[in-house]
UniProtKB/TrEMBL annotation:
A Pfam family recorded for this sequence: Flg_bb_rod
Gene encoding the protein: flgB
Subunit structure: The basal body constitutes a major portion of the flagellar organelle and consists of a number of rings mounted on a central rod.
Compartment list: Bacterial flagellum basal body
Annotated function: Structural component of flagellum, the bacterial motility apparatus. Part of the rod structure of flagellar basal body.
Family: Belongs to the flagella basal body rod proteins family.
The protein's name: Flagellar basal body rod protein FlgB
Domain Flagellar basal body rod protein N-terminal, residue spans: 20-40
Cross-referenced InterPro entries: Flag_bb_rod_N, FlgB
Keyword line: Bacterial flagellum, Cell projection, Cilium, Flagellum
Source domain of life: Bacteria
Length: 137
């Protein structure tokens, strides 16, 4: 007999996405805070590809349109942790700081929007679950 799961795969995905976006927000905020630091290499938090691969393996199937598409992944959604990569300055002029405040602000806004979207979807899912448990009343 299959054990009862309190968190379905979609809710687990949304929760993990929010956790990872929270870490990404901290990384982007650190980049902005160091915009004036000489020789600072901005950090990038990479997690989207690993999360997408984990979705395939954990029952949240991604539809493929070609048989050559990759369907494998590292494991469950809970195993996705992301990785931080430093990107040195590509323009060695000035203080050798690679932070573009404009680009960081755009990335920060996008990340925040994606976080809020996941939070709204999770809230809607919980509301629907509560409605079903109460018998539609």
């Amino acid at each position: 007999m299959k054990p009862i799961q309190l968190a379905d795969p979609i809710s687990a995905l949304l929760t993990k996405s929010m956790d990872l976006r929270s870490i990404n927000q901290q990384v982007l905020a650190a980049n902005i805070a160091n915009a004036e630091t000489p020789n600072y290499a901005p950090a990038r938090f990479h997690f989207a590809e690993a999360l997408q691969q984990a979705m395939t393996k954990s029952g949240v199937a991604m539809q493929t349109t070609d048989e050559q598409h990759i369907t494998g992944g590292p494991g469950s959604i809970a195993d996705v942790s992301g990785r931080i990569v430093r990107e040195p300055a590509t323009n060695p002029l000035g203080d050798n700081n690679g932070v573009s405040v404009d680009e960081e602000m755009v990335a920060l806004s996008e990340n925040q929007l994606m976080y809020e979207t996941a939070a709204q979807l999770l809230k809607k899912r919980m509301t629907m679950l509560k409605y079903a448990i109460s018998g539609g009343q």
